[in-house]
Design goal:
The protein is 41% helix and 26% strand. It is α+β, with helices and mostly antiparallel strands and 134 residues long. The chain has a single domain, classed as Dynein light chain 2a, cytoplasmic (Beta-Lactamase, 2-Layer Sandwich), CATH 3.30.450.30. A six-stranded antiparallel sheet has the order 1-3-2-6-5-4.
């Protein structure tokens, strides 16, 4: 799969949005990333507008927030750090993870995306976001 040939836009241009934009740009097959808080509100997001609407990216973050924060608490109770979820469908892949006790990050990819490359880029971006939120 070739690198994204479309313009990736950060909605608000925050440090978080720039980290997400970089993640989406350097991950072949990625077309959206979002950071959401514990209330389900998108802090910022980056996406390829020709592939997905901004509101859909925000909704993605909102829907993942609460379950991933519960996962974070459950994993921490078991001594597991940095849990990650990957969902595969017939058309897309989703990678998501809590970034702290109050924030989650998610990336949406084409089904044919190289998951090894995607997981590596996601982990680096997650670490960057975690440092920004510290």
């Amino acid at each position: 799969m070739s690198r994204v040939a479309h313009t990736v836009e950060s909605r608000l241009g925050t440090e978080f949005g720039e980290a997400l934009r970089s993640m989406v740009e350097r991950t072949p097959g990625a077309f959206a990333g979002v950071v959401s808080d514990d209330q389900g509100l998108a802090i910022d997001y980056a996406h390829v507008p020709s592939r997905i609407e901004g509101i859909d990216v925000q909704l993605l973050g909102a829907q993942l927030g609460m379950p991933l924060l519960r996962l974070h608490r459950t994993a921490a109770a078991q001594g597991i750090t940095a849990p990650m979820v990957m969902l595969e469908t017939c058309t897309h892949n989703l990678v998501a993870s809590p970034v702290s006790d109050a924030f989650v990050v998610a990336m949406l990819l084409d089904r044919r995306a190289n998951l090894g490359v995607a997981l590596s880029a996601f982990a680096r971006s997650r670490d960057t976001l975690e440092a920004l939120l510290a």
